[in-house]
Write a structure and sequence with these properties.
Layout lengths: L21 E19 L5 E21 L3 E7 L3 H4 L6 H13 L4 E8 L9 H16 L6 H11 L3 H5 L4 E6 L3 E4 L7 E6 L6 H15 L17 H7 L1 E2 L1 H8 L2 H11 L5 E3 L6 E4 L15 E6 L8 E2 L2
Parallel strand pairs: 1-8, 3-4
Antiparallel strand pairs: 1-2, 1-12, 2-4, 2-5, 5-6, 7-10, 7-11, 9-10
Helix pairs in contact: 2-3, 2-4, 3-4
């Protein structure tokens, strides 16, 4: 298949947004319908091959341009200790990176309403960073443009370029910065189960490297995918795979228990998202998504999406 580096950024509302003092955007979470971790580079980073799909579950990001002051306020049911220092927050880093790149001496006031679980592999922090980049560029009198914006996104993490784009669904590879937009599968109900523990992405990569070293498996080769089939749930059921899942589940057996319960509930595909700990299950067409009891876990019932929520002006 021919893989092209295609980027299109959300430019919704056009001139209405230019110069808006305050804007708001829904920072949609993502799930990985397929995630392969490929060769490790000399830099220590890994190549990946993944299918990103957005879901309705989202944080709400509001950002106001200020003359000089810079602030970040986080609301919602979130453990403040899990957020860490403000300077390390991805939304803060995205805003400062954007202002530096655009040559602005101004400031910002970010209000972040958290709904996406932290440390679940759903891209919550990345979605917030991407929302900030989209919001600042959409409201700028002189936007920096797609190539530079995606370059900023790539520096912040492997999920951020996709979530900065206007694509609801895409095949990504490299470090996540190479994107091929795809036609999303039909919107479907999805149950996301978040166990009562988080998984460090850095630790998950380390566990995977250790397991492969022990087995002599380098996993250098990406599979050839039939792009025409990637918009059908029946085909995706056959392709569903997450390289992190076995090594994370070996340390947290609860993962396998959640997967088993969702499968017994009639969902397919069922898999861990990202490096975990969240597990999701897609309801069958015309099926009824019931409550599957998973002891000690938090359950989110949402839907996959076919479009990206636009940036909206507030004032």
């Amino acid at each position: 298949m021919r893989l092209a580096r295609l980027y299109r950024l959300a430019r919704s509302n056009g001139a209405v947004l230019r110069g808006a003092r305050t804007v708001q955007v829904s920072a949609q979470a993502k799930i990985n319908l397929r995630l392969r971790v490929l060769a490790r580079e000399d830099t220590g980073f890994h190549q990946i091959e993944t299918l990103f799909l957005r879901v309705e579950l989202a944080d709400v990001v509001r950002i106001r341009r200020t003359t000089r002051e810079r602030s970040l306020d986080v609301f919602g049911d979130v453990d403040a200790d899990a957020l860490g220092p403000v300077e390390r927050n991805l939304a803060w880093r995205a805003a400062t990176a954007y202002l530096d790149a655009s040559g602005s001496r101004g400031g910002f006031a970010i209000e972040l309403e958290k709904r996406i679980p932290i440390g679940g592999g759903l891209g919550g922090g990345s979605a917030d960073a991407a929302a900030v980049l989209r919001a600042l560029d959409a409201s700028a009198q002189g936007p920096i443009g797609a190539p530079q914006l995606l370059d900023l996104a790539a520096r912040l993490g492997a999920d951020v370029p996709f979530l900065t784009s206007e694509h609801a669904y895409a095949l990504a590879w490299g470090r996540g910065e190479r994107l091929l937009p795809l036609q999303p599968p039909p919107a479907a109900d999805v149950m996301i189960v978040v166990p009562p523990f988080a998984v460090s992405t850095a630790a998950a990569y380390g566990w995977l490297d250790d397991a492969r070293s022990a087995d002599g498996d380098t996993s250098d080769g990406a599979l050839q995918l039939d792009l025409r089939a990637l918009s059908r749930w029946d085909a995706l059921q056959e392709l569903a795979l997450n390289d992190f899942e076995p090594v994370v589940a070996s340390r947290y057996p609860e993962i396998d228990g959640v997967i088993d319960q969702l499968r017994r509930g009639g969902m397919d595909p069922v898999m861990m998202s990202g490096s975990g700990s969240a597990v999701f299950g897609i309801a069958p067409p015309n099926g009824v998504l019931g409550r599957v009891p998973v002891r000690g876990s938090t359950v989110h019932v949402t839907r996959t999406v076919t479009h990206v929520e636009p940036v909206s002006p507030i004032d």
